[in-house]
Amino acid sequence: MSDDTTENWGEDVNPRQAIRKLQPGKLVIASHNPGKVREIHALLGPLGIEPVSAAELDLPEPEETGTTFVANAELKALQAADLSGLPALADDSGLCVEALGDEPGIFSARWAGESKDFGVAMQRVQDRLAALPEGTSRDAHFVCALALAWPDGHVEWFEGRVHGCLVWPPRGENGFGYDAMFVPLGGEQTFGEMDPDAKHAISHRAVAFAQLVAAVL
Ligand code: IMP
């Protein structure tokens, strides 16, 4: 792409200034996961936002047909905004293992199968890594994409990451998903061993929410 595209922005059109602000009032949380809704409530409630869950409004859960975290977050947020007539926030997250070409990625929840057994999902990651040559990197990162959509189709999105490496066997009873095999960069404990507040201070979700709060509130 040539640099010409930037010439038409004009002097006073800074793309960061063009971000749409979220006004105080109701915000649909496009998730049927009560844990996520509670977390978002704690974060945005004090800022004058009244989170309402998609479940409370009886909104359907769309199929996650996107090929990226952002695309999946966006389709969930747009559907909820369209059906409710209110601004809506959705997230999509997962674990990307670098030596596995960033798998499981958007399929992180699906690797746990119907029974949602993350012992099985972590074992699958470990088996795939163990099949690679000795010394292969165990670097991985969690990604959290957030999409904020309005009923007129406008969307703002944000993405947070936390880098680290994978250990085996899993350690710690805190957290969920792949937490017990992930040690954040510079740390020694897995997310599963860490105090939940310490994890929440540095997680991919915290980074994405900090971006959202700084940009739209
Ligand atoms: P979704 O964002 O609800 O579609 O699910 C993402 C999946 O990624 C979860 O089911 C977990 O398996 C995994 N995941 C996302 N964030 C975390 C995390 O903070 N710790 C551990 N696993 C996570």
If you had to describe this structure to a student in words, what would you say it looks like?
The protein is an alpha/beta fold. It has a single domain (23-216), classed as Maf protein, CATH 3.90.950. It has helices at residues 4-7, 34-44, 69-84, 118-130, 196-202, 204-216; strands at residues 25-29, 49-53, 88-97, 103-104, 139-149, 155-166, 182-184. Strands 1, 2, 3, 4, 5, 6 and 7 form a seven-stranded mixed β-sheet that branches. A hairpin with a 5-residue loop joins strand 3 (88-97) and strand 4 (103-104). Inosinic acid is lined by residues 91-95, 108-109, 142, 175-179, 191, 203.
What small ligands are held by the chains?
A: inosinic acid
Based on helices, strands and strand pairing, what is the structural class? alpha/beta
The gross shape turns out to be: globular
- How many β-strand runs? 7
The termini sit apart by 32 Å
CATH level 1 class label: Alpha Beta
Number of alpha- plus pi-helical segments: 6
Q: What is the number of domains?
A: 1
| Radius of gyration using CA atoms only | 19 Å
- How much β-strand is present in the residues? 15-25%
* Average pLDDT reading: 91
Largest sheet, described in full?
7 strands, mixed
Order of helices and strands: HEHEHEEHEEEHH
Helix content: 25-40%
Low-confidence stretches: 1-14
| CATH fold description | Maf protein
Per CATH, the architecture is Alpha-Beta Complex
